[in-house]
Amino acid sequence: MEPISIYTSDNYSEEVGSGDYDSNKEPCFRDENVHFNRIFLPTIYFIIFLTGIVGNGLVILVMGYQKKLRSMTDKYRLHLSVADLLFVITLPFWAVDAMADWYFGKFLCKAVHIIYTVNLYSSVLILAFISLDRYLAIVHATNSQRPRKLLAEKAVYVGVWIPALLLTIPDFIFADVSQGDISQGDDRYICDRLYPDSLWMVVFQFQHIMVGLVLPGIVILSCYCIIISKLSHSKGHQKRKALKTTVILILAFFACWLPYYVGISIDSFILL
């Protein structure tokens, strides 16, 4: 009987029914860092969990009580806080997983992957909507109130939350719990996306790159470049300050996300 290969999102394969295992297929050697990760990762997750719960919780509470005073930007901040709050709720599960094992079963494995995916896509798509809002507010300042309100109150659900939920379908299908290779002394339970073939992983990684970076990146870059062009022809201290802030926003977005997606792209081409 031939071994069945199961490909995970961490880019390794387990030979089910076979004792053979090639450690050279690992992108990094986990055994060398396991003790470090059991201390470092739970600590980081705990810090992010506490700050995320407090920070995002306060934003949601304040925005909830000030419905009439909310600006368009505040409405997007509320969406971002909801997305981030959902994500930080999953961190205790990942902390326990890093420290010991996955004890939470198949249902919660799928749930935390789904929440992670919703946060990942919704947060970056909301940033694209914010750039559209800034574009309308600055470039079309005289007649932008109605389209800005439409974007912030209705289009954001169609353009952010529905796509983010639809993109969790692979998590519904592939996120599962598997056990390590007992013959190699690894009896831990692992919560991951288990793909039947490496091609599936490549397809979903390219989808991830397109929806998570390329499409929102084009929107953000286009909107802010037009804004920069508009502000560069204006005079005054406030205009120069707004121009500087716009440039910083563009650089911050790509500085934070580009290295991550370059790594995914390299990994995808290696798997081809």
TrEMBL record:
Q: Where in the cell is it found?
A: Cell junction; Cell membrane; Early endosome; Late endosome
Residues spanning the membrane: 39-64, 76-94, 114-136, 156-175, 206-227, 247-271
Which keywords annotate this record? Cell junction, Cell membrane, Disulfide bond, Endosome, G-protein coupled receptor, Glycoprotein, Lysosome, Membrane, Proteoglycan, Receptor, Sulfation, Transducer, Transmembrane, Transmembrane helix
Write out the GO cellular component annotations: anchoring junction; early endosome; late endosome; lysosome; plasma membrane
Q: Where is the G-protein coupled receptors family 1 profile domain?
A: 55-272
Gene3D superfamilies named in the record? Rhodopsin 7-helix transmembrane proteins
Q: Name one GO biological process term.
A: cell migration
Principal location? other
Pfam families, from UniProt? 7tm_1, CXCR4_N
Q: Which GO terms describe its molecular function?
A: cytokine binding; G protein-coupled receptor activity
Q: List the InterPro entries hit by this protein, alphabetically.
A: CCR1-9-like, Chemokine_CXCR4_N_dom, CXCR4/ACKR2, GPCR_Rhodpsn, GPCR_Rhodpsn_7TM
Q: What does the record say about its membrane topology?
A: Multi-pass membrane protein
Entry similarity comment: Belongs to the G-protein coupled receptor 1 family.
Q: Relate the protein's function as given in its record.
A: Receptor for the C-X-C chemokine CXCL12/SDF-1 that transduces a signal by increasing intracellular calcium ion levels and enhancing MAPK1/MAPK3 activation. Involved in the AKT signaling cascade. Plays a role in regulation of cell migration, e.g. during wound healing. Acts as a receptor for extracellular ubiquitin; leading to enhanced intracellular calcium ions and reduced cellular cAMP levels. Binds bacterial lipopolysaccharide (LPS) et mediates LPS-induced inflammatory response, including TNF secretion by monocytes. Involved in hematopoiesis and in cardiac ventricular septum formation.
What quaternary arrangement does the UniProt entry report? Monomer. Can form homodimers. Interacts with CD164. Interacts with ARRB2; the interaction is dependent on the C-terminal phosphorylation of CXCR4 and allows activation of MAPK1 and MAPK3. Interacts with ARR3; the interaction is dependent on the C-terminal phosphorylation of CXCR4 and modulates calcium mobilization. Interacts with RNF113A; the interaction, enhanced by CXCL12, promotes CXCR4 ubiquitination and subsequent degradation.
Stated name of the protein: C-X-C chemokine receptor type 4
